[in-house]
């Protein structure tokens, strides 16, 4: 039985999903929660594909059978072990021969097997359509060191809907952003994982997220989501620089100086050679406050340049006096309720 992407995903909440594509394909992007049970290894898939182009379908089919034959019993054993109520879901790239072959095997072994019509390609098309859902988005902006991520987490604890894009991308969005983080997912897998959470959001309620550029590290935001963010109202938190420096020192001074020096070197052209020399000299003396102060000269300019590309009427500045995360989160809530939700003019 074949079902469309939406039905397949609904079934996946109950039954296990098996991705029969190659490990390379799976690594580039897969349905969240799927288990990889590759019909062919990366090398085998390449060989079958080459043979198909050179000698045609029949020759490629025979070679594929040579590869798959010895693995069939293991495939079935694994599927039986994964199955729930003797049911499994299976997909490949286009919903063709690979998934159909596995379905035939599993069905012979007594498993009810449901295929994704159109395969992973259809799933990706379905995911891209989800970003068109209307959402009441509110962007939290502010210069580097303003504690925007911490503010988002505080908002989440009060019950507001929050998307932590940097947390999901495993990157803080700057030259220093990869320090202390896990390896980043591919852009494709980032979008797949994010789409699962996106589906749980309630359109009628505000969704807070941090102001981001198109890319977070090497991960790109879905284009439709990014466009929504660019047109959404912005609460720009304005915190005195001394508190931003304090936060950056707390976040980064714990890491090896070599990592910090490498990060500074990556922005040398934009930061300026003299500032870089001063920053590295300060780093060698463990003067982390000075390092943060110097790097913020560049990052503050970069942020203001990015902010200038937004429509001015969408930007609302909220002055904050300290680093009290809980207190500042409450001020954001009050500011949102009065200025953005109810449209009051604080001027």
Gross morphology is: elongated
Name the average pLDDT: 93
Provide the low-confidence segments as ranges: none
- The tally of helices reads 17
Written account of the structure:
The protein is an alpha/beta fold and 347 residues long. It has two domains: 2-128, Oxidized Rhodanese, domain 1 (3-Layer(aba) Sandwich); 133-341, Rossmann fold. Helix content is 54%, strand content 13%. It has 17 helices and twelve strands. The protein has helices at residues 5-12, 23-28, 42-55, 57-68, 72-82, 97-108, 119-130, 148-157, 165-169, 187-198, 223-231, 241-252, 257-266, 268-271, 273-284, 288-307, 325-341; strands at 2-3, 17-19, 35-36, 87-91, 112-116, 136-141, 161-163, 206-210, 215-216, 219-220, 234-238, 315-319. The chain has a five-stranded parallel beta sheet with strand order 1-5-4-2-3. Helix 8 crosses helix 17. It is elongated and about 70 Å long. The protein starts with a strand and ends in a 6-residue tail after the last helix.
């Amino acid at each position: 039985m074949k079902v469309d992407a939406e039905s397949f995903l609904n079934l996946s909440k109950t039954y296990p999903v098996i991705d029969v594509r190659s490990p390379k394909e799976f690594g580039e992007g897969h349905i969240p929660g799927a288990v990889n049970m590759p019909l062919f290894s990366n090398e085998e898939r390449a060989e079958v594909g080459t043979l198909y182009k050179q000698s045609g379908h029949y020759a490629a089919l025979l070679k594929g059978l040579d590869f798959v034959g010895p693995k069939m019993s293991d495939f079935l054993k694994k599927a039986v072990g994964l199955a729930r109520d003797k049911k499994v879901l299976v997909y490949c790239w286009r919903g063709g021969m690979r998934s159909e072959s596995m379905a035939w095997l599993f069905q012979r072994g007594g498993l009810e097997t449901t295929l994704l019509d159109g395969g992973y390609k259809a799933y990706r098309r379905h995911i891209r359509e989800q970003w068109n859902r209307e959402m009441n988005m509110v962007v939290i902006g502010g210069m580097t060191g303003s504690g925007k991520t911490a503010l988002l987490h505080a908002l989440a604890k009060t019950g507001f809907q929050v998307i932590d894009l940097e947390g999901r991308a495993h990157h803080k969005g700057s030259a220093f952003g990869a320090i202390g983080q896990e390896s980043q997912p591919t852009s494709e897998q980032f979008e797949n994982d994010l789409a699962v959470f996106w589906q749980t959001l309630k359109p009628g309620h505000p969704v807070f997220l941090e102001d981001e550029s198109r890319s977070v590290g090497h991960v790109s935001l879905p284009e439709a989501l990014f466009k929504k963010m660019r047109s959404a109202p912005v609460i720009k938190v304005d915190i005195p620089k001394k508190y931003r420096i304090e936060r950056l020192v707390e976040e980064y001074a714990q890491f090896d100086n070599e990592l910090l020096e490498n990060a500074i070197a990556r922005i040398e052209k934009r930061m300026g050679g003299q500032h870089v020399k001063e920053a590295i000299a300060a780093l060698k003396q463990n003067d982390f406050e000075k390092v943060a102060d110097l790097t913020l000269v560049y990052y503050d300019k970069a942020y203001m340049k990015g902010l200038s590309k937004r429509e001015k009427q969408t930007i609302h500045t909220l002055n904050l006096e300290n680093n009290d995360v809980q207190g500042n989160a409450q001020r954001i809530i009050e500011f949102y309720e009065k200025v953005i939700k109810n449209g009051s003019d604080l001027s």
